Amino acid sequence: MIKRPDATKRLFVLDTNVLMHDPTALFRFDEHDIFLPMVVLEELDRGKKGLSEVSRNVRQVSRFLDDLLEQAADNDAINSGIPLPSVINSDVPQASGRLFFQTRQMAGELPKELPGQLADNAILAVAINLQQAQIDTNVILVSKDINLRIKATVLGICAEDYYNDKVLDDVDLLYRGSSELKADFWEDLNRLESWTEDGRTFYQVEGEVVKDWYPNQLIYSPGEERAIEAVVRNSNDTTADIELIHDYRRENHSVWGITARNREQNFALNLLMDPEIDFVTLLGQAGTGKTLLTLAAALTQCIEHKRYGEIIMTRVTVPVGEDIGFLPGTEEEKMTPWMGALMDNLEVLNKTDGGDWGRQATNDLLQRWIKIRSLNFMRGRTFLNRFIIIDEAQNLTSKQMKTLITRAGPGTKIVCLGNISQIDTPYLSETTSGLTYVVDHFKNWPHSGHITLMRGERSRLADFASENL
C-alpha cells in the first residue's frame, strides 16, 4: 500500500456506491480534492431510473454535478478542477477542495489474473495511474464495497470506507436510555426537595451527577431496598427535576392485559404511555418484548383513552432468505406477509373468554384500528393524531428515517423498534444505521425517550439460543 507520509495533499477517488449512499458526499471532504472516474458516471447513469431511494440519490448527485459544471467556462476549467463549496456548515470557511473528472484514457498496470472489463477494475486502474502520476499526493480510494477495498489494498492502493455517515465510533457508546445511580447517590447531593402534583411525586436534586443526565432518561437505584425508579423531566448543569414512574409490573396497572416482566420493560411502558413524549425508540434483541409492549400501549391509548385516532404500522421489506417475488392485492394485502410479528402479538393481546366467535369479533375490532402501510408511499403524506409504529427500523438509512419522522402532524406519536445487531441492508452497519442516528440525535429533546431492552422474555429456548448460538 503506497502511503506517502511526506505528502500534504490528498486526492480521494470515489466509488459509485459512496454517491449512491450519500449524495452530499461530494461536499464532505473539506479542503481535499475529489476525483470521479468516468466509469462512476456511467454507473450513475444506469442507476438513475426507478423510484427507489438509491435512484433518488443518483438523480440528486446528477443535479449536484450539473450545478458544479455550470461554474466551468471551458474544458481548461474542468481539467484544473472545479471548486467545491462547503454546504455542511455555513459558519466555517469555504472549502478549498476541487472536483476532478477523468477526461482521458488511463492505462493502469493491473495483474493479468483480474477479470478484464469490470467497473471495479477500471476504478482500480484509475487509482494506480493517479498514484504514478502524482507522486506528491496521497491517493485514497473511498468505497462502501469491502471486496473492492480488499482488492485495492492487495494492489498497493490506500483504501478507506466512507466514514462521514458514521454516528458513533463504537456502538457501545450508544445512549441506552437508563442509568443506575451510585449507592451513595443520596448522600452526595447538595440539595433535595420533594413535592406532589396531580398525584405524581417529584424531586428536585442538586449535585454533580445531574450534568450527565438527558431529558426523559430513566434512573434507578441499585438493589431492592430503598429502590427508586424515576424519569428525568428536566436538567441543567447543577439541578434536575425527576418524577417517580408508574409500576406496570403490577396486575392492577396492566396495559391491555400486559404487565412488565423486568425493569427495562417497565421503563418502556412509561415512555410509551406518556402523552408528552412524541418520539420513542426501543432497541433490543429478539424476544425482549418491543412489539408486544408497543402494540399494547397503542391499543390502550387509541381504544380506551381515545388519545389517537388510528394505529399505523410499517416496516422495511428486506427479505431474510430468497425473495418470494411480487405479491397480489392492495397495499395492505401486499404488506401482510411482512407483518408476521404484528399478527403473532395480536394473538397474545386478543385474549377473550367468548370462544371462537368472541375471539373473531375482538380480532375484527383490532384490525379496524390497526392499518398496515408501506414505506414506499410515505413521501408527501402528513399523519394527524396517529400512533405510528416503525418496525425493523435498523434497516433504514438516516435519510429514510428523516423522511418518515417528518411525516408526523399534530397529535402524532412515532415509535421506532429495532435490533441494530440484525441489519439486513447492504452498506449499513451498527454505527451508520438510521436507528442509531435518531437515538443519538433525539437524546437531548425533551419530547423524546429511548430505552434499550436487555433481557429476553420470549421463552427459555429463545433465550438460550440468543446467548449460545
TrEMBL record:
Any single GO CC term annotated in Swiss-Prot or TrEMBL for this entry: cytosol
Gene3D superfamilies xrefs: 5'-nuclease (3.40.50.1010), P-loop containing nucleotide triphosphate hydrolases (3.40.50.300)
UniProt keyword ATP-binding, yes or no: yes
SMART domains hit by this protein: PINc
GO molecular function, one term: ATP binding
Protein name as it appears in the record: PhoH-like protein
Segments forming domain PIN: 10-150
Superkingdom, taxonomy of origin: Bacteria
InterPro entries (alphabetical): P-loop_NTPase, PhoH, PhoH2-like, PIN-like_dom_sf, PIN_dom
Organism, as annotated: Methylophaga muralis
Key words, A-Z: ATP-binding, Nucleotide-binding
Family: In the N-terminal section; belongs to the PINc/VapC protein family. Belongs to the PhoH family.
Matches recorded under Pfam families: PhoH, PIN_4
